[in-house]
Amino acid sequence: MEAETKIFEEKCFKILGFVDKGKVPRHAFVGNIDIVIPTDNMASKKLFSAFIFSMLSLNRYALARIIPRNLKNGVSPKLMVLIPYRSAKGECFYMTQLP
Fold first, then answer.
1. What predicted TM-score, i.e. pTM, was given to this entire model?
2. Mean pLDDT by 10 residues, the chain (99 residues)
3. 68 φ, ψ to 5°?
4. Best CA proximity match to 92, nearest among 68, 66, 62, 70
């Protein structure tokens, strides 16, 4: 049955939508936590900062679909949640997998 869930697409990182942070319980977080940061480009840093600011002000998380890399036998897509974080040192998204 697991073989039927595998897909043969190129690697992909796509935001599917947004959800109120109260709707995603912490016990639903599965796996490790990764950090998403912007590229070293001033325009992308400004857009990234505005995106994090709007998500923090609206108390939202982003839901994303990730396909890490395409193998010959296919890969399973993963549903991820992006949690915005801002401090004096910088901004980032904490990303973890959902079931």
1. 0.80
2. 62 90 85 88 92 94 84 74 92 91
3. -60, -50
4. 62
